[in-house]
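Sample entry (208 residues):
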Amino acid sequence: MMKFLEELTDLVFVEDLPQKSDIIFIPGGRYGALALQAARLYKEGMAPLILPSGKYSKLVGFFEGPADMPDSALKNCPTEWAFMDHILRSQGVPEDAILKEDQATFTYENAIFTRQTTDRLGLHIRQAIICCQAYHAKRCRIYYEILYPDTRFFICPVSTQDISRDNWYMDERKIDTVLGEISRLGNQFHQIVRQYGMSQQKKSQEER
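Predicted structure, serialized as tokens:
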């Protein structure tokens, strides 16, 4: 059983040591800890820019407010991006180091719209750090790698909801959360691969 749990854990939880990069990405969400992690890495000189991404969850349709911070002022933020921006600036990150993407409503859109933003600004991203939730790390990495195939990524996650690679299987709520992530991996990648396969088939037919 432990071998099985280890394989599931390695599938979901990914973490790298940060290295000097061109930018730090934050793929949305309601957890201010992600912005705090990004601010810390910025102040350590790991990257000169931070790009938070996010409007609000597509499933909800509005920004519900912070999930891990009691500051009432943050509850009035209209988007995930505004929430992250507020925290980054409160930690001393200068305004001109924070880029903006406030339209994404789920993780794959975070990656898509982030790529559109860096392309629009003419940025060449050779190396990038991603600050995400620990149990969300593998899906974030794969999505961003799809959109940035020539970029090397360093995943610097934060444990949220008290979920970590060491304890996720010890509580029913944590188990449901992590196994739900595995379900999303399968369901969403099925759609992505199918779309890619159809585009390749069409390309092959056009080349004949």
